[in-house]
Amino acid sequence: MSLPVITVTQMREWEKATWATGQTEAEVIRRVGKRIAKRVRRLTRSSDAILILAGKGNNGNDARAAHEQIEDRKTEILNVTAPETDLPKLQELLRQKFALIIDGLFGIGLNRPLDEHWKKFISAVNETKLPVVAVDTPSGLNCETGTTEGAAIEATITLTVGAPKTGMLAQSAWPWVGRLEVLEDVGLVPCPLTSEIKWTLREDFERFPPRRMEASHKGSNGHLAIVAGSLGYHGASVLAARAAQRAQPGLVTLFTDEHVYHAVAPQLQAVMVNVFKPEMKFPDAASAVLIGPGLHAPGMADAMRKSLQRLWRNSSLPVIVDASALDWLAPHTLPKNILRVITPHPGEAARMLNWTTPQVQADRPRALRELSKRFGGCWVVLKGHQTIVGNEEGNIYVNSSGNPFLGQGGTGDVLGGYIAGLLAQPELQKDAGQAVRFAVWRHGNAADALQEKEKSWITEDLITEMGNAR
To answer: Do 384 and 456 share a structural domain?
Structure first.
């Protein structure tokens, strides 16, 4: 299941609980090394050379254990004890052609400023611009505060042991941490710790979505109504509708601006397409509504705002609000038994809260809580690096999948459509939080799968891959 995001002190408590069972540090280090070696082999080819930088502590021992277990690769290891004397050795080694560097210089316990010799050593590593795999934490990062101790390794991937540490999720840490991955099965006892901030794992969705009954039919699996698309932005409605189809609700009906109807309708076959009108009614059998993707036409704003606000306050249906429509929501108290979801990116969240975007990014969990409280206890998907999902109380889940190439136009429309396609299904409405989390994870997981096999993928490819990725 999902992991707690923990402090360094809590990690030390976890280790002590492990040693108390008779498990040894040496065995845990061996297992950590094995997991690092496995990940590094996936990142490199047999002809590649790898440089390993190992410090004096257990972080260095982890790197040395990885060195012993990396097979079919040329490896060079530099045991670093004094940066002023080891820097020339590093510079000499860097004359060779390396494909990747393993950083095992400092661990999570670092809490003091680095001296000028260490700063120069770390700068020399960063200046190579080579991919770096950091062991447990990027050397130089304070894992409590998320800031550096004067300098830090710029990791491509950080393989942290056991569970993420709080500082690694801070915006200030993102340039150093890179992609954060967790080495779980390394011999520690089951995590005895708890936190309201949770790290999402693939295993969270092993039995989700649940199996459909053999005798089910399209009427059993929900009918999603989508209001999306306007002149100049009609593609957003197509992306959202196609993504909703990938979630496999029984039916999808798209209501779009009359000015783009003839551009949208020919691109969709199984999706029913109608023209949006202020006085329109959703299908009687509708089981969820998505409003927002591509709704930028000035002439639609007043009518849409009134319709959306009525729907948000009064409808018994699940309502998902995305993109431009987020600006039309008004703070409102809602009954506890209705389902509402909003999916802002940081800029949209800032407008909804009357904050600045840097304020949102500085404390994303707080921003999520405030959004949920302001808009009736709704579920919030605060998008961006390490998208978070939650509401005004309970756990907040940090998504672990995805990569920077999701930063393309339309990927948010895809996510909104997929979330709505899941929530249109009556069976999945029974655990709406799990459905939303799954949508966010699978969206990122599809991007990761694409990135491994096709380096220049586009948003349309993401929709196709979401039908395959697990």
So the answer is: yes
Whether 37 and 62 have beta carbons less than 8 Å apart is answered as no
Q: Do 177 and 242 lie in a common domain?
A: no
Cβ pair 191, 3 in contact under 8 A: yes
Q: Are residues 173 and 251 located together in one domain of the fold?
A: no
More confident residue, 306 or 404: 404
Residue 84 lies in a domain: yes
46-97 pLDDT per residue, tens: 999 999 999 999 999 999 999 999 988 999 999 999 999 999 999 999 999 9
Interaxial angle between packed helices 234-246 and 459-466, expressed in degrees from 0 to 180 and rounded to the nearest 10: 20
- Which residues of 33-124 form beta strands (DSSP E)? 49-54, 74-79, 100-104
Residue 361 domain-assigned?
Answer: yes
Domain carrying residue 310 = 218-466
What CATH code is carried by the domain that includes residue 169? 3.40.50.10260
Contact yes or no for 172/146 (Cβ under 8 A): yes
Give yes or no: residues 236 and 186 share one domain.
Answer: no
Q: Are 239 and 121 in the same domain?
A: no
- Three-state DSSP state, 60: helix
Q: Given a cut of 80, is residue 276 above it in pLDDT?
A: yes
SS3 percent helix, strand, coil of the chain, rounded to 5, is 45, 15, 40
Q: What is the CATH number of the domain that holds 432?
A: 3.40.1190.20
Contacts 24+ apart (CB under 8 A), 181-186: 181/39, 181/157, 181/400, 182/3, 182/400, 183/32, 183/35, 183/36, 183/159, 184/3, 185/31, 185/35, 186/28, 186/31, 186/32, 186/35, 186/161, 186/162
Using an 8 Å Cβ cutoff, are 149 and 112 in contact? yes
Strands of 49-54's sheet in order across: 74-79, 49-54, 100-104, 132-135, 157-161, 179-183
Instruction: Give one DSSP letter per residue of 38-54, joined into a string.
Output: HHHHHHS-TT-EEEEEE
Q: What is the β-pairing status of strands 251-256 and 272-275?
A: parallel
Counted domains in the chain: 2
| pTM (global) more than 0.85 | yes
Using CA atoms, how far apart are residues 31 and 183, in angstroms rounded to an integer?
Answer: 9
Q: Is the pLDDT of residue 297 over 80?
A: no
Residue 196, domain member (yes or no): no
Which of 150, 173, 190 is at the close of a domain?
190
The pLDDT, as a whole number, for residue 470 is: 65
